Amino acid sequence: MITSKKDLKYYLLQDKIALKIERRYPRFIGDEVWKFQIALRKVEYYINCRNSFLFKPLVAYFKFKKYILMLLLGFSIPNNVFGPGLSISHPGTIIVNSRAKIGKNCRINNCVVIGSAPIIGDNCYIGPGAKIFGNISIANNTRIGANAVINKTIVNDGVTVVGSRFHVVNKK
To answer: Taking a C-beta distance cutoff of 8 angstroms, is the pair 27, 5 a contact?
Structure first.
């Protein structure tokens, strides 16, 4: 969770590194995913740290910008869910429950649904079409394959999980 200006800068830098972007600023046309992530982080910062009367116009501006980009990109991502280093691979439907907690350096693909209140560890990869439901936890360094349905806790670090019936393929 972003609790200071220093945290905001750290989150923005980690997101930029995770997206493998070397430019200083987003392009005027293009880079919509990066623009969305910047708006998301700024909304989190202004809500968590600067929620006073003076900053209401900035909060409204970044909320509006985030909302427009969410409509454009097909995202439904609430505030204060993802840790630093979020990497959204490209536009496409991504739905995340506001009670979910996702650690740092998470890579998420399109058509992903994260429902209920899962806790997802650090350095996780969530493949296209994956569905994660329930009050569960997923260990660090877990790779969730395309179209996998996860409804049970993953205890071991560094596993690869695939299939609609939660099949562990690889343990590293």
So the answer is: no
- 120, containing H or E segment: strand 119-120
Count of other CB atoms within 10 angstroms of residue 85: 21
Span(s) in the chain for CATH 2.160.10.10 = 93-171
d(CA 169, CA 135): 23
| pLDDT (tens digit per residue) in 79-100 | 999 999 999 999 999 999 999 9
Please give the Cα distance from 26 to 28 (Å, whole number): 6
Tokens representing residue 95 in the block: 């739905």
- What's the pLDDT tens digit per position in 44-83? 999 999 878 888 999 999 999 999 999 999 999 999 999 9
Q: Which of 107, 109, 124 is nearest to 161 (CA)?
A: 124
* Ordered DSSP codes for 37-103: HHHHHHHHHHHHT--SGGGHHHHHHHHHHHHHHHHHHTEE--TT-B-SS-EE-SSS-EEE-TT-EE-
The CATH number that domain 93-171 falls under is 2.160.10.10
